[in-house]
Design brief:
Blueprint (H helix, E strand, L loop, with lengths): L5 H15 L7 E5 L12 E8 L2 E6 L9 H7 L6 H6 L2 H4 L3 E3 L3 E11 L8 E3 L4 E4 L2 H8 L7 E10 L3 H7 L3 E5 L2 H5 L6 H8 L4 H7 L4
Parallel strand pairs: 4-8
Antiparallel strand pairs: 1-2, 1-9, 2-3, 3-8, 5-7, 5-8, 6-7
């Protein structure tokens, strides 16, 4: 009997996806294929915040920045000023990761969060459950315990010009699947790639064993 390899599974999934690919992938995950290399996108999971004929924009949600912590960022924007402020910071935020969201505009913060918090004219509702806000106000709200119940923060984003993402999809650089809220807000960043593959029925252990094989 022919053993099902990781490559077999990938080919099966990509054939399925090519026949049902929607016109817009807004609100979905892009999951990097093994052939996609580079510091920003290798083994990445991207949440697509917008996708149209004008291009696409998304956030890499599983690469932790080694350059800055969340409290450091709050100090840079003058939300935290001393040790007392740090002590008063909600406990989950004291160890909250800052993610490397992509190669574009890396000096700017983007907060992907639950829909129970929205700022008029500043929040993009990507779906009924997930929103995007990129203002200092949401950072202040988080620090004061008045922000969304679930959130992740990236510096920078991933952007595609018109037709660029479609070309990458045609070249099998990405797998796609419906976004999963628990993956974003309950799963540790270093586990999100494996969890994303599992949403498609793909086992990461097979990715490792098949790497480098034709």
């Amino acid at each position: 009997m022919h053993a099902v390899t990781f490559i077999d599974m990938i080919e099966h999934v990509t054939k399925q996806q090519s026949s049902i690919m929607p016109s817009s992938l807004e609100g979905q995950f892009l999951i990097a294929m093994p052939n996609l290399k580079g510091p920003h996108f290798e083994r990445s999971v991207v949440y697509l915040c917008s996708h149209s004929e004008d291009g696409a924009m998304g956030l890499v949600v599983n690469h932790v920045s080694s350059q800055i912590t969340f409290p450091d960022l709050l100090r840079q924007v003058d939300i935290l000023s001393d040790e007392e402020d740090m002590i008063n910071l909600p406990q989950p935020l004291q160890s909250m990761d800052v993610l490397d969201g992509g190669p574009v505009d890396q000096g700017r913060g983007f907060v992907l969060h639950s829909a129970d918090y929205q700022l008029e004219a500043s929040t993009l509702a990507v779906s009924s459950e997930i929103c995007l806000t990129a203002t200092v106000e949401i950072l202040k709200a988080l620090a004061e315990g008045k922000g969304p119940s679930s959130a992740l923060l990236t510096l920078g984003y991933a952007g595609w010009s018109p037709g660029q993402l479609e070309d990458e999809l045609q070249n099998n650089s990405w797998l796609t699947c419906n976004a999963d809220r628990s993956l974003l807000f309950e799963c540790a960043p270093d586990q999100r790639y494996e969890a994303g593959l599992k949403l498609l029925g793909i086992d990461l252990s097979m990715l490792s064993s098949e790497a480098g094989h034709a």
